[in-house]
Q: What sequence folds into this?
């Protein structure tokens, strides 16, 4: 086998030297017939296709659903490195919640001068409407998806803290289900920690944040933009797993100061709304006037504390890419601790000196839009042509506030299964964290996204990325 | 349950039922095509009329060519009731109400759609017609199989059945309406022998020829056929059977205050009309009246259960 390692590979040290995590797996792999594995790959494809585990890529034909390619080689992490990740994520999630509580009340962090006030001013992700509103149990970011990359052994960086409407958890669970169907023998050899209790835990933490005036079992609903949304599969998956209604804006109305859904027997109250639509769409009376996705008057119900919205409106400010660079300071400010997980060095283009540096070194940097997601609106300097760079420079100069830049980190690689055998590809990892007044729960593992194109660093499913099952080995 | 979920389930099964009925129609036409009957054109004409797609077909086609019609009914986009489109709509409604159904039901709808998507990439040839009909039928049967075996026997299931029976009633009534002249002419002209063939075609177009013959000791005449299709309580495609099942579903969903309910009253009205029908009364008016009442019932169901 020729396995060309570029920098840090999670499975192989060299062609014939394998890391401990993968040893048992590799021994097993070598006993497998290649054509059998190929067959398993097709089976996985058929399984995803029949079950309709799809997502949509915007700008494609309206009715085209796409399958996310699934790679049958698991990514394997050991419990020691995982333990550090869990602690690091817990710390971030707690600090982000304290930060949100602060900036929507006394703004001590601004007063201390640690964060410049102009980061909030004119920032569309900051919602002045939320000032003075305290969510139930003071929880803003009930659900977070923290994007990590690995660069060296035990060296993890946080790339983004997704606290708006992070998606992907359904693929994490379906990936595990698929692997268990395809290779039951593997799971009896390894002690792989389970990651499929997420829906149960999600249901628990949502119920814990029920509005205080709800005395009986709360009614939960998941709000989706509808079947044409790229993550609709996940919305339906979660509603099914939680045993709750999946609602759209058209099913909802504010009546008698409560949010209600239209059932076959009339209007029924909703106590907890897990919304999978962005902040600015949830209430046309408060935010985007032309939004049909949300419910007019929802914010008034929220202000009256007659509903819990998860995540709370205005949470998006915390995953703003400009705020991201302050997370280590935020952790220190609220918790008096040093950040366990590292941040990627971030250059803010609204700072003259840093802007100059970015423009000079753009061919070595990754430039991102402050509110961009899904791998859109970004430039990977080392992989871009001169004209692409020039075009991007102009964009930055036009609106420097809208951009940040980071050094191109060399993402670790993991083996994937190809026609020619194993081959290394770059990966990232999105574990999901649930926050309630009782603490933080982090999924065992998370969603590993993999750039299927050789040498590509773009792992986003909207741009040709695939996924892998992620194993955290038991102690 | 959300009103919009009930709406999706109701329509999902209306579309599936409509697709299945269309398969039956294609099959009866194709059988005739194989024996090169002189009645072939009339038959296709009746089939296109039954499906209310005649004007769309004849817009681009001057001749009633069997394979052209079959492809038109399977996949032509001009025909919004083509089988692929119907199953696509059923699947779209299944996605909307995914939470209300079991994984098995969802997967069976999804695989049916994937199957047709693949099979209908190319035109349907003479050699493929029968196997395609059979395979599609089996895929649809699987949906109903899983529906019966895996779903809770609750209101969700009843909305699925409501869609099925409202659609089936409409379909059988339309078949009778298109060919109702057959059911009177015999009395007027005594053309019993000549009409037997067409009566047979009616039965074939709802896949009930064998069960009719079984029940009627191989004797076919207008009276028996119309009784079989209109008022037979045991025949799953008869108007009587469909309305009985509809009433049952409405009762189960409503649970209380049944007798004052508009849907229930309309359904009972339909039932009474079928029960008190006089043989060889004006079939045309009778059937038109039933089709209108069935449409009224569908609207009342939508209103009663907050579909929109």
A:
């Amino acid at each position: 086998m020729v396995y060309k390692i570029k920098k840090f590979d999670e499975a192989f040290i060299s062609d014939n030297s394998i890391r401990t995590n993968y040893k048992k797996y590799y021994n097993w792999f070598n006993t497998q017939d290649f054509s059998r594995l190929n067959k398993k790959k097709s089976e996985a494809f058929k399984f995803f296709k029949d079950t309709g585990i799809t997502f949509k890529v915007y700008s494609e034909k309206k009715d085209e659903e796409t399958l996310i390619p699934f790679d049958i080689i698991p990514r394997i992490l050991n419990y020691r490195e995982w333990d550090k990740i869990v602690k690091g994520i817990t710390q971030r999630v707690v600090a982000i919640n304290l930060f949100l509580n602060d900036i929507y009340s006394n703004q001590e962090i601004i007063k201390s001068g640690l964060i410049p006030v102009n980061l909030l001013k004119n920032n569309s992700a900051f919602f002045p409407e939320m000032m003075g509103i305290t969510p139930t149990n003071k929880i803003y970011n009930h659900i977070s998806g923290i994007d990590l990359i690995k660069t060296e052994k035990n060296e993890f960086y946080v790339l983004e803290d997704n606290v708006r409407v992070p998606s992907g958890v359904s693929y994490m669970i379906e990936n595990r289900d698929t692997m268990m169907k395809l290779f039951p023998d593997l799971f009896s050899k390894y002690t792989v920690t389970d990651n499929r209790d997420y829906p149960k835990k999600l249901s628990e933490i949502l119920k814990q944040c029920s509005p205080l005036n709800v005395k009986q079992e709360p009614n939960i609903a998941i709000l989706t933009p509808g079947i044409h949304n790229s993550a609709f599969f996940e919305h339906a998956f979660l509603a099914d797993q939680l045993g709750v209604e999946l609602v759209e804006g058209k099913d909802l109305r504010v009546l008698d100061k409560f949010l209600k859904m239209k059932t076959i027997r009339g209007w029924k109250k909703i106590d907890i709304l897990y919304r999978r639509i962005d902040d600015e769409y949830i209430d046309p009376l408060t935010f985007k006037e032309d939004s049909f996705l949300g419910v007019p008057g929802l914010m008034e119900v929220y202000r009256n504390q007659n509903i819990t919205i998860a995540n709370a409106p205005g949470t998006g400010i915390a995953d703003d890419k400009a705020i991201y660079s302050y997370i280590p300071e935020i952790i220190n400010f609220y918790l008096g601790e040093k950040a366990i997980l590292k941040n990627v060095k971030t250059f803010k283009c609204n700072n003259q000196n840093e802007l100059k540096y970015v423009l000079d070194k753009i061919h070595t940097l990754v430039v991102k839009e402050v509110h961009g997601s899904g791998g859109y609106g970004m430039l990977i300097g080392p992989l871009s042509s001169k004209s692409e760079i020039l075009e991007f420079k102009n964009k930055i100069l036009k609106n420097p506030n809208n951009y940040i830049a980071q050094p191109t980190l060399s993402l670790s690689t993991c083996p994937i299964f190809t026609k020619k055998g194993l081959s290394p590809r770059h990966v990232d990892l999105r574990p999901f964290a649930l926050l309630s007044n009782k603490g933080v729960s982090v999924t065992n593992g998370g969603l590993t996204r993999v750039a299927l194109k050789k040498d590509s660093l773009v792992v986003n499913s909207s741009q040709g990325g695939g996924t892998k099952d992620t194993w955290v080995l038991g102690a | 349950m959300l009103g919009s979920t009930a709406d999706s389930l109701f329509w999902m099964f209306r579309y599936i039922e409509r697709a299945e009925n269309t398969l039956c129609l294609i099959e009866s036409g194709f059988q005739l095509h194989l024996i090169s009957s002189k009645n072939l054109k009339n038959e296709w004409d009746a089939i296109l009329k039954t499906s209310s797609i005649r004007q769309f077909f004849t817009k681009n086609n001057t001749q009633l060519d069997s394979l052209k019609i079959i492809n038109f009914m399977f996949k032509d986009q001009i025909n919004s009731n083509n089988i692929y489109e119907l199953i696509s709509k059923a699947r779209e409604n299944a996605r909307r109400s995914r939470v209300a159904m079991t994984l098995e039901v969802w997967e069976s709808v999804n695989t049916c759609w994937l199957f047709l998507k693949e099979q209908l990439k190319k035109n349907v040839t003479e050699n493929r017609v029968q196997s395609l009909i059979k395979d599609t039928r089996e895929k649809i049967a699987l949906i109903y199989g899983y529906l019966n075996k895996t779903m809770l026997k609750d209101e969700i299931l009843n909305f699925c059945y409501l869609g099925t029976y409202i659609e089936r009633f409409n379909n059988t009534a339309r078949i009778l309406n298109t060919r109702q002249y057959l059911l009177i002419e015999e009395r007027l002209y005594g053309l019993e022998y000549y009409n037997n063939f067409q009566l047979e075609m009616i039965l074939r177009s709802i896949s009930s020829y064998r069960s009719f013959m079984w029940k009627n000791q191989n004797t076919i005449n207008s009276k028996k056929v119309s009784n079989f299709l209109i008022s037979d309580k045991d025949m799953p495609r008869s108007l009587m059977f469909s309305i009985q099942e509809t009433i049952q579903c409405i009762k189960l969903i409503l649970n209380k205050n049944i007798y004052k309910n508009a849907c229930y009253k309309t359904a009972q009205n339909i039932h009474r009309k079928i029960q008190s029908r006089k043989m060889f009364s004006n079939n045309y008016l009778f059937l038109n009246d039933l089709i209108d009442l069935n449409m009224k019932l569908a609207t009342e169901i939508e209103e009663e259960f907050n579909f929109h």
